[in-house]
Structures are given as structure tokens and as C-alpha cells.
Amino acid sequence: MNQSHHANFIVVIPARYGSTRLPGKALLPLGGKPMVVRTYEQAASSRAERVVVATDDERIREVIIDHGGEVCMTSSHHVSGTDRVAEVAKKLRLADDAIVVNVQGDEPLIPPSIIAQVANNLAVHKGMDMATLAEPINATLLHDRSAVKVVRAHNGRALYFSRSTVPWYRDDFAAEPDTVPADTLIRRHVGIYAYRVSFLKQFVAWPTCPLENAEALEQLRALYFGGAIHVDDAREEPGPGVDTAADLERARALIEAREA
User: Fold this and answer.
1) Alpha-carbon distance 89 to 240, whole Å?
2) Which long-range contacts (CB under 8 A, 24 or more apart) does 150-154 make?
3) What is the C-alpha separation between 48 and 121, in angstroms, rounded?
4) Which of 131, 53, 48, 123 lies closest to 91 in space, CA to CA?
5) CB 104 within 8 A of CB 53
6) What is 152-211 written as a DSSP string?
């Protein structure tokens, strides 16, 4: 796409206080700032018209307000970040054709360029309902069930997302099961999403589906009910998200090195 063209979009950052593996994750300090503030700052550098943190927690609200950010208080009963994003779109009365990018609150190192990229991809591909990103996979993550894989068609449309290794290279894996095949089509999914508001409303109105329940992957609901998701390779390597204590230490080290 023409790099001089930039889509108009809003970023919504769903942020909960509760986290099974890292309690109070959103507020854990990284280089002197809470994680959710780091994520907010990355999103604010992405050319977004507006960045809104969606939370149900007063502690997170206070921290974002203290740093000059915008917060939308949402229900504490949401089962997913997408539901929280949809509530924000409704409360802010966003137009049906507005583009909203969902950036997880535990992505303090996400490059602003890929936030803009996913919004631009959706703006350009008019026949798609959502857009997301992927990256080449490495041998460590090849058979890792926590690394989600995506298979896409010739036009970038997602065919399937799975925790399994897809596509399965029958002959290559028979010979070398732990080696990434040459010119592989296997891509690791990067969990950032752009939606048009009209589709976001549809998405949260649909019930959870058998595929989504089987893989514990929410984006399969969109495919199951006929939605079209565009997938492009991220132009810049996505920073590591923070799910575990080890992730937290790695993120701290990267931030300290960058800001030293």
C-alpha cells in the first residue's frame, strides 16, 4: 500500500487488573512506568486519532488519567477483550465504518508502525471485515501450542488459526520433525486486530462456536460465521508480550537497554 496514505483509526486497549499468571499485571513497573502506560504510549505514537484504555478497574483508570490518557470504564463481566472493545465503541458512539484497533494491554514493546499497518490493511481491503498480522515462525515455536499459527489464502484471507502446526509438511516433518521447512507457509499469528465497528457489533452478538471452544481462539468465531480476516506479515518484529514472570524480566531488560 502507498505509505503516504494513512487510515483514520482509534486504538482501544483492553486492560484488566486480574491475571492468572501475573496478578496486577497491567500495573507492574517496566523501566519506571506501569506496563499499561508503556502500551498506551506505544499506541499514542501510531498515528491513531484517539487512544482509549478500556478497563473495569479503578487503579488502572487512575494511573492512565495521571499520565494524561483517556479511559473508558467497562463492565467487569466481559469474557474477552473484544467484548470490552465493543462496549467502548458503543459508549463512544463510533460510526459503523470507523476502524478500531485492539491492542492488548500487555504489549509494552509493540511497535507503533504495526498498529498503523493493521489499520491501513483493513482500510485498503474493503472486502475484509477484520485485519490481523503474522510473522515467520522459528523452530522453537514450531510445535509450541501456545504459539498460534495461521494459514492464509492467495489474497491474504485467513483460512484457519490453530495451536497445532499448520500446514503440516508431511514429507519434511517425516524426515526432520523439529526443523522449519524451507520457504515455509507456516506463520505465527500476532494478536493485534483491526475491525470496522459494524463487524465488531456483529461479532460480539454471535454465540461462541465449537471451533473457538476447541482451540480457545476467539478469532475462529469470525471465520465460523463467515467473516473475512486479512492477514499480512508484520513490517516490524512485534515486541514480546508479557504473560509470565520470565516475559516480564525480558521486557524490563529490553526497555532498560533501549533507554540506557
Assistant:
1) 27
2) 150/187, 150/188, 150/189, 150/231, 151/185, 151/187, 152/187, 152/231
3) 14
4) 53
5) no
6) E-TTSBEEEEESS-SS--HHHHHH-TTSPPTT---EEEEEEEEEEHHHHHHHHHSPP-HH
Residue type, 208: T
Under a CB-based contact definition with an 8 Å cutoff, are residues 35 and 105 in contact?
yes
Query: In this structure, which amino acid lies at residue 191?
Result: G
d(CA 194, CA 210): 23
Whole-angstrom Cα distance, residue 62 to residue 69? 10
- Provide CB contacts within 8 A for 71, sequence distance 6+: 52, 53, 54, 55, 60, 61, 64, 65
b/e map 132-151, b = 16+ CB within 10 Å: bbbbebeeebbeeeeebbbb
- Report the distance separating Cα 59 and Cα 64, nearest Å: 9
Dig out the grid coordinates for 60 from the structure.
Answer: 488502572
Structure confidence by residue, pLDDT tens digits, 54-113: 999 999 999 999 999 999 999 988 888 899 999 999 999 999 999 999 999 999 999 999
CA within 13 Å, CB half, 65: 10
* Nine cell digits for residue 63: 494511573
Give yes or no for a contact between 147 and 137, defined as CB atoms under 8 angstroms apart: yes
Length of the chain, in residues? 260
218-229 pLDDT tens trace: 999 999 999 999
Kind plus residue range of the DSSP H or E element containing 151: strand 149-152
What pTM was estimated for this model as a whole? 0.94
